[in-house]
Amino acid sequence: MTTDPKTKVHTVNNAVEVQEQVYRFQSEGYVKENIFVLTHDKSRTNRLAERTDAEKIGIAEEGLGTAIANIFRSSGDELRAKMRSLGLSKSDAERLERELDQDKILVIAWGGREYAGEDYDPYVYYYPNYVY
């Protein structure tokens, strides 16, 4: 892991950009197990994870309770819960879910800390930068 385990979220447009961003995160010291890809479509997420050096957000990252709850959630609720488990704030998860609605792809380098409830990481880095 990098000496600065900051969670970073990059929004990209296609598989080539996913792979490029995964390589950048790896060159920064993030291990493969902490680099995730997320799309609005589960099968697309699976395909991208298989074809790149990225992972899917799973039970180990979400926590068992969130993973079980996701079985009963809508797609949007599930996506936001996955993002929240990595430390993204509720408002950022909602904003990024709207990006996913527009066919964007998230590549996330996770700092490694698990989050639950309303807890979040105020130091997550987003690219492109978002102006509130």
UniProtKB/TrEMBL annotation:
It comes from Paenibacillus harenae. This is General stress protein 17M-like domain-containing protein. Residues 8-102 form the General stress protein 17M-like domain. InterPro entries: GSP17M-like_dom. It holds the Pfam family YflT. It comes from the Bacteria.
